[in-house]
Amino acid sequence: MKKIGKNHSNALKQVDREKDYQLKEACELVKKTSYVKFDASVDCHVRLGVDPRQADQMIRGTATLPHGTGKEVRVLVLTTPDKEAAAKEAGADHVGLDEYVTKIQGGWTDIDVIICSPDVMPKVGRLGRVLGPRGLMPNPKSGTVTPDVAKAVKEVKAGKIDFRVDKTGIIHTTIGKVSFTPEQLAENTTELLQTLAKLKPQGLKGHYFKGITIVATMGPGVKVEQASITGI
Protein backbone atom coordinates (compact mmCIF):
# COMPACT_ATOMS: atom_id res chain seq x y z
CA MET A 1 0.00 0.00 0.00
CA LYS A 2 1.29 3.44 -0.95
CA LYS A 3 2.14 5.53 2.09
CA ILE A 4 0.33 8.87 2.37
CA GLY A 5 2.60 11.80 3.17
CA LYS A 6 2.06 13.91 6.28
CA ASN A 7 1.00 17.01 4.34
CA HIS A 8 -1.53 15.10 2.27
CA SER A 9 -2.83 13.31 5.36
CA ASN A 10 -3.36 16.65 7.15
CA ALA A 11 -5.15 18.04 4.09
CA LEU A 12 -7.45 15.02 3.91
CA LYS A 13 -8.50 15.52 7.53
CA GLN A 14 -9.88 18.96 6.66
CA VAL A 15 -12.28 17.62 4.02
CA ASP A 16 -15.42 15.59 4.70
CA ARG A 17 -15.33 13.15 1.78
CA GLU A 18 -19.05 12.38 2.19
CA LYS A 19 -20.20 16.00 2.12
CA ASP A 20 -21.20 18.17 -0.84
CA TYR A 21 -20.01 21.70 -0.08
CA GLN A 22 -21.50 25.01 -1.17
CA LEU A 23 -19.49 26.25 -4.16
CA LYS A 24 -17.75 29.17 -2.45
CA GLU A 25 -16.98 27.06 0.62
CA ALA A 26 -15.53 24.36 -1.63
CA CYS A 27 -13.30 26.93 -3.34
CA GLU A 28 -12.08 28.21 0.04
CA LEU A 29 -11.34 24.64 1.12
CA VAL A 30 -9.40 23.85 -2.06
CA LYS A 31 -7.17 26.87 -1.43
CA LYS A 32 -6.75 26.00 2.26
CA THR A 33 -5.80 22.37 1.65
CA SER A 34 -3.28 22.97 -1.16
CA TYR A 35 0.05 22.19 0.48
CA VAL A 36 2.56 22.51 -2.38
CA LYS A 37 4.93 25.49 -2.44
CA PHE A 38 4.14 26.55 -6.02
CA ASP A 39 0.99 28.23 -7.36
CA ALA A 40 -0.92 25.04 -8.09
CA SER A 41 -3.61 24.66 -10.71
CA VAL A 42 -7.21 24.08 -9.66
CA ASP A 43 -9.18 21.59 -11.76
CA CYS A 44 -12.86 20.81 -12.04
CA HIS A 45 -14.05 17.26 -12.71
CA VAL A 46 -17.69 16.91 -13.77
CA ARG A 47 -19.27 13.47 -13.97
CA LEU A 48 -22.12 13.52 -16.47
CA GLY A 49 -24.94 11.04 -16.96
CA VAL A 50 -24.15 10.58 -20.64
CA ASP A 51 -22.93 7.70 -22.78
CA PRO A 52 -20.05 9.09 -24.90
CA ARG A 53 -20.42 6.12 -27.26
CA GLN A 54 -23.65 7.73 -28.51
CA ALA A 55 -22.91 10.45 -31.06
CA ASP A 56 -25.54 12.82 -29.62
CA GLN A 57 -24.07 12.44 -26.12
CA MET A 58 -20.44 13.22 -26.97
CA ILE A 59 -20.25 16.48 -25.04
CA ARG A 60 -17.67 18.91 -26.39
CA GLY A 61 -17.43 22.68 -26.40
CA THR A 62 -15.70 25.79 -25.17
CA ALA A 63 -16.13 28.21 -22.29
CA THR A 64 -14.55 31.60 -21.73
CA LEU A 65 -13.62 31.79 -18.06
CA PRO A 66 -14.11 35.34 -16.73
CA HIS A 67 -10.78 35.22 -14.87
CA GLY A 68 -8.85 32.97 -17.26
CA THR A 69 -6.97 29.90 -16.09
CA GLY A 70 -3.95 31.71 -14.68
CA LYS A 71 -1.79 29.72 -17.07
CA GLU A 72 0.25 31.20 -19.90
CA VAL A 73 -1.16 29.44 -22.96
CA ARG A 74 1.27 28.78 -25.81
CA VAL A 75 -0.53 29.19 -29.13
CA LEU A 76 0.56 27.99 -32.56
CA VAL A 77 -1.26 29.38 -35.61
CA LEU A 78 -1.06 27.44 -38.86
CA THR A 79 -2.23 29.65 -41.71
CA THR A 80 -1.43 31.30 -45.03
CA PRO A 81 1.09 34.18 -45.24
CA ASP A 82 -1.63 36.85 -45.59
CA LYS A 83 -2.93 36.11 -42.07
CA GLU A 84 0.38 35.68 -40.29
CA ALA A 85 0.85 39.32 -39.27
CA ALA A 86 -2.63 39.54 -37.71
CA ALA A 87 -2.03 36.31 -35.77
CA LYS A 88 1.29 37.59 -34.40
CA GLU A 89 -0.28 40.92 -33.44
CA ALA A 90 -3.06 39.07 -31.60
CA GLY A 91 -0.44 37.35 -29.43
CA ALA A 92 0.28 34.01 -31.10
CA ASP A 93 3.55 32.48 -29.88
CA HIS A 94 4.29 30.66 -33.14
CA VAL A 95 2.97 31.41 -36.64
CA GLY A 96 3.66 29.65 -39.93
CA LEU A 97 2.73 26.52 -41.82
CA ASP A 98 5.07 24.18 -43.67
CA GLU A 99 7.97 24.48 -41.24
CA TYR A 100 5.70 23.70 -38.28
CA VAL A 101 3.97 20.83 -40.09
CA THR A 102 7.42 19.32 -40.56
CA LYS A 103 8.37 19.92 -36.91
CA ILE A 104 5.15 18.30 -35.66
CA GLN A 105 5.64 15.31 -37.95
CA GLY A 106 9.00 14.96 -36.24
CA GLY A 107 7.33 14.85 -32.83
CA TRP A 108 7.39 18.51 -31.72
CA THR A 109 4.30 19.43 -29.66
CA ASP A 110 5.64 22.10 -27.31
CA ILE A 111 2.41 24.13 -27.45
CA ASP A 112 -0.94 24.18 -25.66
CA VAL A 113 -3.35 25.17 -28.45
CA ILE A 114 -3.19 25.00 -32.25
CA ILE A 115 -5.39 27.32 -34.32
CA CYS A 116 -5.61 27.08 -38.08
CA SER A 117 -7.54 28.59 -40.98
CA PRO A 118 -9.81 26.22 -42.97
CA ASP A 119 -7.75 26.56 -46.16
CA VAL A 120 -4.75 24.79 -44.61
CA MET A 121 -6.68 21.84 -43.14
CA PRO A 122 -5.57 19.47 -45.93
CA LYS A 123 -2.00 19.85 -44.62
CA VAL A 124 -2.97 19.94 -40.94
CA GLY A 125 -5.17 16.86 -41.32
CA ARG A 126 -2.07 14.74 -41.91
CA LEU A 127 -0.96 15.53 -38.35
CA GLY A 128 -3.89 13.75 -36.67
CA ARG A 129 -1.78 10.78 -35.61
CA VAL A 130 0.53 13.07 -33.63
CA LEU A 131 -1.92 15.73 -32.46
CA GLY A 132 -5.02 13.61 -31.80
CA PRO A 133 -3.71 11.61 -28.82
CA ARG A 134 -2.41 14.85 -27.25
CA GLY A 135 -5.72 16.69 -27.61
CA LEU A 136 -4.12 19.28 -29.90
CA MET A 137 -5.95 18.63 -33.17
CA PRO A 138 -7.75 21.78 -34.36
CA ASN A 139 -11.52 21.39 -34.59
CA PRO A 140 -14.29 23.72 -35.83
CA LYS A 141 -16.46 22.84 -32.79
CA SER A 142 -13.83 24.21 -30.43
CA GLY A 143 -13.29 27.33 -32.55
CA THR A 144 -9.73 26.36 -33.43
CA VAL A 145 -10.48 26.01 -37.15
CA THR A 146 -11.63 29.46 -38.22
CA PRO A 147 -11.06 32.08 -40.93
CA ASP A 148 -10.50 34.69 -38.20
CA VAL A 149 -7.36 33.27 -36.60
CA ALA A 150 -6.52 36.57 -34.88
CA LYS A 151 -9.84 36.61 -33.01
CA ALA A 152 -9.37 32.98 -31.97
CA VAL A 153 -5.90 33.76 -30.58
CA LYS A 154 -7.27 36.65 -28.51
CA GLU A 155 -10.06 34.46 -27.10
CA VAL A 156 -7.67 31.68 -26.10
CA LYS A 157 -5.26 34.13 -24.49
CA ALA A 158 -8.18 35.73 -22.60
CA GLY A 159 -9.23 32.47 -20.97
CA LYS A 160 -11.20 30.43 -23.50
CA ILE A 161 -10.93 26.71 -22.72
CA ASP A 162 -11.80 23.66 -24.79
CA PHE A 163 -13.37 20.64 -23.06
CA ARG A 164 -14.70 17.24 -24.06
CA VAL A 165 -16.15 14.31 -22.17
CA ASP A 166 -13.86 11.31 -21.79
CA LYS A 167 -14.90 7.70 -22.41
CA THR A 168 -16.12 7.35 -18.80
CA GLY A 169 -18.44 10.36 -19.05
CA ILE A 170 -16.27 12.84 -17.16
CA ILE A 171 -15.17 16.35 -18.10
CA HIS A 172 -11.72 17.35 -16.77
CA THR A 173 -10.55 20.95 -17.10
CA THR A 174 -8.55 23.65 -15.32
CA ILE A 175 -10.56 26.49 -13.78
CA GLY A 176 -7.82 28.58 -12.17
CA LYS A 177 -4.93 28.71 -9.74
CA VAL A 178 -4.67 28.48 -5.95
CA SER A 179 -3.65 32.16 -5.95
CA PHE A 180 -7.12 33.07 -7.27
CA THR A 181 -9.66 34.33 -4.74
CA PRO A 182 -12.52 31.97 -3.79
CA GLU A 183 -14.85 34.31 -5.67
CA GLN A 184 -12.77 34.06 -8.87
CA LEU A 185 -12.65 30.26 -8.66
CA ALA A 186 -16.40 30.14 -8.02
CA GLU A 187 -17.18 32.43 -10.97
CA ASN A 188 -14.97 30.40 -13.30
CA THR A 189 -16.58 27.15 -12.12
CA THR A 190 -20.06 28.59 -12.57
CA GLU A 191 -19.27 29.71 -16.13
CA LEU A 192 -18.02 26.22 -17.02
CA LEU A 193 -21.07 24.48 -15.53
CA GLN A 194 -23.56 26.88 -17.08
CA THR A 195 -21.94 26.22 -20.45
CA LEU A 196 -22.18 22.46 -19.88
CA ALA A 197 -25.84 22.81 -18.89
CA LYS A 198 -26.62 24.33 -22.30
CA LEU A 199 -25.08 21.27 -23.98
CA LYS A 200 -27.40 18.76 -22.29
CA PRO A 201 -28.56 16.31 -24.97
CA GLN A 202 -32.25 16.46 -25.77
CA GLY A 203 -34.09 13.39 -24.60
CA LEU A 204 -31.43 12.40 -22.06
CA LYS A 205 -33.02 10.30 -19.34
CA GLY A 206 -31.89 10.53 -15.74
CA HIS A 207 -29.63 13.10 -14.13
CA TYR A 208 -27.28 15.08 -16.37
CA PHE A 209 -24.93 16.30 -13.63
CA LYS A 210 -23.99 13.31 -11.45
CA GLY A 211 -21.04 14.73 -9.55
CA ILE A 212 -18.91 17.89 -9.39
CA THR A 213 -15.48 17.93 -7.75
CA ILE A 214 -12.81 20.62 -7.60
CA VAL A 215 -9.24 19.85 -6.64
CA ALA A 216 -5.85 21.55 -6.48
CA THR A 217 -2.68 19.87 -7.69
CA MET A 218 -1.62 17.42 -4.94
CA GLY A 219 -4.63 18.41 -2.82
CA PRO A 220 -7.75 16.44 -1.84
CA GLY A 221 -10.87 16.56 -3.97
CA VAL A 222 -13.78 18.62 -2.66
CA LYS A 223 -17.30 17.72 -3.78
CA VAL A 224 -19.61 20.59 -4.77
CA GLU A 225 -23.33 20.78 -4.09
CA GLN A 226 -25.10 21.25 -7.43
CA ALA A 227 -27.90 23.30 -5.87
CA SER A 228 -25.35 25.96 -4.85
CA ILE A 229 -24.58 26.78 -8.50
CA THR A 230 -26.88 29.17 -10.30
CA GLY A 231 -28.11 28.43 -13.79
CA ILE A 232 -27.75 24.65 -13.89
Question: Could you characterize what this model shows?
Answer:
The protein has 232 residues and is an alpha/beta fold. It is built from 8 helices and 9 strands. It has helices at residues 6-13, 23-32, 81-90, 98-105, 121-124, 128-131, 149-158, 182-198, and strands at residues 41-48, 60-64, 75-78, 94-96, 113-116, 160-164, 170-177, 209-216, 222-223. The strands form 3 sheets. The chain has a 4-stranded antiparallel β-sheet, with helices on one face. Strand 8 and strand 9 (222-223) form a beta hairpin. The protein starts with 5 loop residues before the first helix and ends in a 9-residue tail after the last strand.
Top keywords for this entry?
single chain, 232 residues, alpha/beta, four-stranded antiparallel sheet, three-stranded parallel sheet, 8 helices, 20% strand, globular
